[in-house]
Amino acid sequence: MPTLASIADRVGVSINTVSRALRAPTTVRPELRQRIKTAMEELNYVPNRLAGGLSGTRSDIVGVVVTSLYYSEFASIIDTLQSALLEHDLQVMLANTRYNADQELRLVRSILSWRPAAVAIIGIDHPPKVVELLMASGIPIIEMWDTGGEVIDTAVGFDHVKVGFAQAQHLIDQGYRRLAFLGSVRDNDKRAQKRLIGVQAAAAAAGLPDIVRQTIQQGGSPELGERLAVELLESHPEIDAIVCNSDVVAFGVLSTLKRLGRRVPEDIGVLAFGDNEAAGCVTPSLTTVRPARERIGKLTAEAIIARINGAEPSTTVVDWKLVERQSTRRREP
User: Fold this and answer.
1) What is the CA radius of gyration of the chain?
2) pTM across the whole model
3) How far is 59 from 48, CA to CA, in rounded Å?
4) Is residue 48 part of a domain?
C-alpha cells in the first residue's frame, strides 16, 4: 500500500507537509494541496483511520458492499455472511451504493481506510478506479452474486447471462413467441443487463423476433411495473410474454394485466427474478428464478476465512432454480 512517504516523494515535499494537507488542509496552499491530492489518486493512497499504534495492522472488520437494500434483495446473504464471520471474531461494515458508481468509489475508499481484513462486494463489474483500489489494497476481495466474467480475486455467485437464457427458453417451451424484457435496468446494474443479453440470445437461437425492451433507469417497484406494462402493451399489443428484471416489478405487471383483462398465462406469460416471499402468494402465482442467497453468504464467509489464511483465489459457481408457477404454466409438464 502507498504511504505518506510515497506521496511526499511523488510531490517533492516533506512527509509533514503531506500530513498537514490531510489533517489541516487550510494550512497548505491550494496549489500544493491539489498536487498532493492528485498524487494520492495516482498512487491509490487510502488514509489509515486506525489509531497510530495500530497503523501497521489490519482490523477485525470485513467490508460488505451491496447495491441495494430494498425488498430484502441481499438481506439473506448479509445475514448468513455476518453470522458465519462472527464465529471467527470478524465484524461486518455494511455499505449500500444504490447502484451509483460515484457512491461506490467513495464507499470503497472509506471502507479501505479502516484497514479491513477483507472486502465482499456485490458484482464483478465495477468502475475502473474501484477495481484499482481493491487490487492495490493487498487484502482478500470476494465478489458476490456474479461469476460471468473476469474477477479481481475470488468470486461466489452465478452467470446471469445463463439465467436470462433459461428464462426465455422456459417461455419458448411454453409456446410463447413474442417476448419483452421489462423493468428497472440502470447503467450500474450489470447483472440485469446480463440477464437481458441472455433473453435476447435465447430468442435469437429460437428464430424469434427481436426482444422488445421496456426499461427505465430508476428503482424497481410494483408501481413501476404497472406503468411500464401499460406503456408496453400500448406500443406492442402483440407481446405474449414478459420477462421482468425483478419480482416486485412483476407484481405490478400482474396487477395491470388483470385490470386490462389480459389473462395470465393464457394471453400473456410473466416470469421474473428473485423469488420474493410473496411470489407464491399472488394470483396467479409468479414463475421466477430463485438464487441461493443463503448459500452465497455461507460460501462467501468461507472464502474470506480461507483467503485470510493463505488459500489461493478461486471462483465458486452456485446453483439457482427456475421455480415454475401459474404465471407461465400454459402447458402441463
Assistant:
1) 23
2) 0.84
3) 11
4) no
How are strands ordered across the β-sheet holding 212-216? Answer: 212-216, 179-184, 241-244, 269-273, 287-291, 320-323
Q: Are residues 260 and 138 in the same domain?
A: no
E-strand spans in the chain?
Answer: 61-66, 91-96, 118-122, 141-144, 154-157, 179-184, 212-216, 241-244, 269-273, 287-291, 315-317, 320-323
For the stretch 120-169, pLDDT in tens is 999 999 999 999 999 999 999 999 999 999 999 999 999 999 999 999 99
Tell me the C-alpha distance between 62 and 26, whole Å.
34
The verdict on 261 and 302 lying in the same domain is no
Residue 333 lies in a domain: no
CA 204 from centroid of its chain's CA atoms: 27
φ, ψ for residue 246 (rounded to 5)? Answer: -155, 160
Q: What range does the domain containing 22 cover?
A: 4-43
Structural domain count, the chain: 3
SS3 183: strand
Measured CA to CA, the distance from residue 245 to residue 74 in angstroms comes to 15
Whether residue 201 is contained in a domain is answered as yes
Domain containing residue 61: CATH number: 3.40.50.2300
* Helix extents (H) in 114-236: 128-136, 160-173, 190-205, 222-235
